[in-house]
Design brief:
This protein has 324 residues and is an all-beta fold. It has one domain. The radius of gyration is 21 Å and the shape is globular. It binds calcium ion (4 copies). The site of one calcium ion has 8 residues, from loops.
């Protein structure tokens, strides 16, 4: 005889890891951010030679903060150099009114007034041994130099990285720190972007994760990826979905498809997994963004809002064998 029971394993786990402002975050398993000089071919994996990241500092914090850049130059270790090391990269930090509230700042392309707000700091890096394989620190910054935004959880700074000349790939990372000399995370701090350009691991079978946040207004999303080089597969998981296959792009191609958001996914992050195949593919740079039904970009948070989504099952009916 069979007995029918209904399993409703519904639980959104809020496991907000409040201390991680490495960008990319360790959980993402992404080795580097990447921005190419503007003379580089698009097929190297950067569609617009520009990357914008935002840093959010909780309102309760009044102590100074520092934004640190690892390997800001192009040359020596880590970078993707073609022939001569001829690339210049400009890092520009903005705060103040309009920094994040300006719509152009939240687009997936560097257009219009995306450099909104007050320019706080700017520095151009070439091939500079002084900063090769080392950290460069911006600050001290008073949190109130940022723009306060309730939607983005605090005082927000914007760091734009532009490949202003050359044809090489600048690989780099960020850290939001309370110290100018060390990486000490800020409790409740976070970092996010609306268009993510990064390097994948070279080793086979590695899984990288990016976490777009779905707010209450999102009904459907469209994911877009560029230059994934067919390097394995891309899957979406969430509180209600497991390993939903997304379209992936080949070399110098764009792939996109849509996904309908379930009510239970509102207020949670999605886990988009870039799953490398069995082949070792090196120097794979990729661009990723996700937009909602209005074409507005969703933020990818380094520390996923609501925690990493845990699949909690659908309303399911399972027959259970009676004990003999
Ligand atoms: Ca370097
Ligand atoms: Ca070059
Ligand atoms: Ca670099
Ligand atoms: Ca690529």
């Amino acid at each position: 005889m069979k007995r029918i029971i209904i399993l409703t394993t519904f639980s959104i786990l809020i496991s907000f890891s409040t201390k991680a402002q490495a960008v990319p975050a360790p959980e993402e398993n992404i080795p580097f951010l990447v921005t190419f000089g503007k003379e580089a071919k698009k097929s190297f994996g950067d569609d617009d030679n520009c990357q914008t990241f935002f840093f959010s500092i909780p309102k309760s914090l009044s102590k100074p903060v520092y934004i640190r850049i690892f390997d800001p130059g192009t040359g020596g270790k880590h970078d993707e150099v073609y022939k001569a090391e001829n690339t210049e990269t400009s890092f520009q930090l903005y705060g103040g009114k309009g920094c994040i509230s300006e719509k152009d700042a939240r687009e997936t392309d560097p257009k219009g007034n995306f450099k909104s707000g007050n320019l706080i700091h700017q520095k151009v890096f070439k091939n500079e041994p002084e900063y090769d394989d080392k950290w460069y620190t911006i600050g001290p910054l008073s949190p109130t130099q940022g723009e306060y935004s309730e939607e983005y959880f605090g005082n927000v700074f914007k760091l734009i990285c532009e490949g202003t000349s050359g044809d090489d790939g600048n690989l780099y990372r960020y850290f939001l720190s309370t110290s100018p000399n060390e990486n000490i995370p800020i409790s409740g701090g976070n970092a996010f972007t609306f268009e993510y350009t990064f390097r994948l691991n070279a080793a086979s079978n590695q899984i990288s994760h990016i976490y777009p946040f779905v707010d209450d207004n999102v009904i459907s999303i469209k994911q877009t990826n560029f230059d994934f080089d067919n390097d394995g597969s891309i899957e979406l998981s969430s509180v209600v979905t497991k390993a939903y296959k997304l379209k992936m792009s080949g070399d110098n191609e764009t792939a996109e498809d849509k996904y309908t958001v379930s009510p239970r996914e509102k207020g949670t992050s999605l886990d988009i997994q870039l799953i490398k195949g069995t082949k070792k593919i090196t120097n794979n740079n990729v661009v990723f963004y996700v937009t909602n039904q209005y074409g507005e970009a969703l933020p990818f948070f380094a520390v996923p809002i609501g925690g990493t989504p845990k699949y909690s099952g659908k309303l399911s009916i399972k027959p259970i064998q009676k004990n003999k």
